[in-house]
Amino acid sequence: MKPAWPRIVAHADMDAFYAAIEQLDDPSLRGRPILVGSPKGRGVVLTASYEARPYGVGSALPMAKARRMCPDAIITPPRFKRYQQVSETIMRVFSDFSPDVEAISLDEAFLDMTGSEQLFGAPEKIGRQIKDAIRDATGGLTISVGLSGTKYVAKVASAYQKPDGLTVVPPSTAKAWLAPLPISRLWGAGPKTQKRIHQIGLQTIGDVAAADPKFLAAKLGSAGLHFYTLAHGEDPRRVARRRTSKSIGSERTLGKDVRTRADIEHQLRRSADAIGRRLRRKHYRALGVRVKLKTSDFQLLTRQRLLDEPTDVAQNLLSVGVDLLHEFRHPGPFRLVGMAAYDLVKADDPVQLGLFQDRPKRRNLEEAIDRLAERFGNDVVRRAEDLCRPQAMQIDTNLDFLDEDLDETGNDDN
Ligand SMILES: [Mg+2]
After folding, report:
1. Domain count, the chain
2. Which one of 20, 85, 146, 361 has the minimum C-beta count within 10 Å?
3. Ligand 1 centroid vs 48 CA: distance in angstroms?
4. What own/partner pairs with CB < 8 Å and gap ≥ 24 does 132-138 have?
5. CATH of the domain at 389
6. Mean residue pLDDT across the chain
7. Beta carbons within 10 angstroms of residue 99's beta carbon
8. 24 is in which domain, residue-wise?
9. pLDDT per residue over 283-326, tens digit each?
């Protein structure tokens, strides 16, 4: 059988993930409007069930406002550990379909299905089987699947008929299929960029495709050409092999091995600060913290833990990291100390953080330092404590890492 498409990419995204799990676990919530989020203070809606959405409520809306708009809604506090558990089940199902699974968040992944028609049939059949397998494995949750020849079009397709959708866009028709869609469906175009595109007179993806690429570059910079390419249904990016969700890490091979608790904690603090800053800049929060130590004889040791709720506050990351140190049995010395934040969840609204109010002052302080670092560079905000350890600062090798494309999954629906 000759493959009809040069590449087959599937994007699979659970429907109203957190709310659907609450309804799955508690049958009395089924068929009723559910808002997942903290009922206290200035909390925001993390996910609204589909029964609540006709009232106009959705993710990132302040909870108080959502309650006024949908007074019958039942508010349930989030249970992230449970969501993480279901996420593992989903990712296992995906890996039955393809060795090339790129997890984007807890409930969303790309699957490269190129060459799998022999096994699963035509693209529509592939999508149908993924949906059935997810429903069976989770005990009834629904997922929306989009299939096309590129990551970008597959992603737009999965959102096209939510919930429980299946949308197949043959590569030859991708450009025409995209054309009538609003520019909010352009990957990587946030609200500011969308406004900018409207201001230059373009309303639909088809308008962008028909525009002069030189004009787009002049008005929007390099992003203009990026949007032009997407609008033509082109996207050369491959599905990366990444079974777990993204992570942001910071680790250092030290100029001098460390052994004492104080020295290790000092290194963890530097890592936590760097990770917290990058999480905030990318508008992500982490559900998991991992600590990594490498012994002087190159043994790599790791310990990790899931949090009760996601955070982007360095102080929170650090306290978990310090706690994890108790779980290492090795006496050291260590030549590398590092930390990573994983199981990242998107936090679209950095201001309304009711759920994460555990340390609002601490977060404000860290944000103030972010702004200083942006203006004057990281050295200016180096901690006073670091200044007392100049010898440790100079010869370490910094190995910060960041999964790329972290900010390119706009239009998220959970
Ligand atoms: Mg989703």
Report:
1. 3
2. 361
3. 11
4. 133/93, 133/96, 133/97, 134/12, 134/14, 134/90, 134/93, 137/89, 137/90, 137/92, 137/93, 138/24, 138/86, 138/89, 138/90
5. 3.30.1490.100
6. 85
7. 9
8. 17-80
9. 788 888 999 999 988 888 999 888 777 888 999 999 999 999 99
For position 224, which CATH number holds? 1.10.150
Question: What is the residue type of 403?
Answer: D
| Beta-strand relationship, 300-311 and 284-295 | antiparallel
| Residue 338 falls inside a structural domain | yes
Q: Which residue has the higher pLDDT, 209 or 411?
A: 209
The CA 209 to ligand 1 mean position distance, Å, reads 28
Summarised one tens digit per residue, pLDDT across range 47-59 is 999 999 999 998 8
Q: What is the whole-number distance in angstroms between the Cα of residue 159 and the centre of ligand 1?
A: 9
What's the 15 CA to ligand 1 centre distance in angstroms? 5
Where does the pLDDT of residue 387 fall: very low under 50, low under 70, confident under 90, or very high at 90 and above? low
Is the residue at 355 inside a domain?
yes
Cα of 230 from ligand 1 centre, angstroms: 22
Neighbours of ion ligand 1 (CB under 5 A): 13-14, 17, 107, 414
- Ligand 1 geometric centre to CA of 31 (Å): 18
Q: Diameter of the chain by CA atoms?
A: 69
Amino acid symbol at 191: P
Compute how many other C-beta atoms are within 10 angstroms of the C-beta atom of residue 112.
21
Residue 177 has pLDDT above 80, yes or no: yes
Residues designated as active site:
108
